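Question (not urgent): is this output format expected?
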Amino acid sequence: MSIGKKLNIGFFIILAVLVLSLGIIFAQITIIDQKVEDTVDNRMLQVQVSNDIQFELAMQGLYMRALMLENTESNRNDLATYQQQLDDSIAELQQLTTKETAEFQEYVSILNDYNNSFNDAISDVLTALDDNNEAAALMFVNTQARTANIGILDASKDIMAYQQKQLQIVKKDTEASVTTASIIAFTAIAIGIIISILAIVLVRNFITRPLRNVVSHADAIAQGDLTIPSLQHKANDEIGMLANAFNTMKDNLHRIVSNVQQNSNQVSQSAMLLSASTQQMNASSQEVTTNMVEVADLARISSSAAAETAKATDETASGVQRIAESTQTLNETSVETAAVAEAGNAAIVTAQHQMSTIEQNTRTLNQLVQQLTQQSAEIGHITKVITDITDQTNLLALNAAIEAARAGEHGKGFAVVADEVRKLAEQSKQSATQISTLTDTIQADTINVEKAVQSSLQSVEEGVTIIDNAGTSFANIYTSVQQMTAQIQEISAASEEISASAEEVSASVAEIANGADNAAAYAENVAAAVEQQSATMQEVGAISVDLADKSHELQQLTAQFKV
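Got this back:
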């Protein structure tokens, strides 16, 4: 049964008691009114008529004696007037006896009989007076008239006594009715008060006490305690519906807070992993930067060596020309050429070692760049996981806000917490988005670096091939110079071959110089890209630290709840 029906039943019972009491009181008032009306309209009128009869009887006796003393027309008329008034009063009194008892009607009948006897005596007196027989008239006055007058007077007194008796009875009945009405009124008031007290007790037991339980549980949840037991309310009323809705809200809030705590822990762990990955990538970037600096230095050295080699080949070409011009200085020139060839061969050997070193460093740099690409992909995957977690956290915060809104006033504290959780989730999502953007930039830069490194590796491989060819050429030159003394006759042909070889060596050395310059430029570009990548990874590390802080704040907010 609903609370409204319970309250309606209580109010209807109170209303029924009040209506019944008012009905009984109204009936008693009606009885009292009837008795008062009977007293005023009937009893008092009969008393007044009885008084009029006594007055008219006295006046009638007075004028009858006045007529005996002085037989005048005026006395006759006055006697007749009061005689008629007495007859009218008796007639009126007879009309008022229709609802009276037999005793009162008997008194009125006796009064009427005596009045008729008195009227007969008056007629006899008047007849005797008309006959001038005063003695007979006096006899009628002293006998028949006097007896009738005394009878009328006694009858009127009996009527007065009867009316007094009836007035006392009415008075007692009226007092009894008033007493009954008062008792009924006080009884109705007492019953109404008792029923009202019972209604208040029932309302307290069925409404106030369950509501206090709901309020106490709401206060506990507002303080963050979600471990309280569910409300128990067996009645199928509005309080029961409220208790069920409250239990559902508590369970949903418990589930949401638990999920938020788990997600915040995952976000914190992911942020720590991201921070560790960024630190590792920073270390790798620093190592790559160091290697690229070394590569650039070696490329510059190779460029200097190539320049020296080109200069040496130019001098060799000049020597060959001088040999062609003057055979006298051939031996000296050949010795110088041998020395120069030996120095060139040593430079070529040095350049070969340096190019081998550049090739190894470039290959190492390519491997590091590939590792950097893989780590950037892992960061993108971690960032996606963080974005999914923040989206789920935002959805859970939205669900918490909806559940708090359904709770009304008791859910305001949860709405504030849910809003803070939602803001933290949005900030986490923004940070994760920034990380994703930076990761994409890193991946793009890494791809460019990888391409540049591959191009540099190809150039280095070509430089190694050219250096090898130059080494072979310098070996041939050195052999030719050694054979120059024994093969003086072949000086011209040898000079031409040396000149051609020198030109080839010069071209090769120029290509080596250009390759070394390109390798240095590529190394500088790679170093700049790695430095930019290092700065980007530092930003990623700062964002991961900020994400960890936000996750810690989220954990502190959810730690306010006991789950």
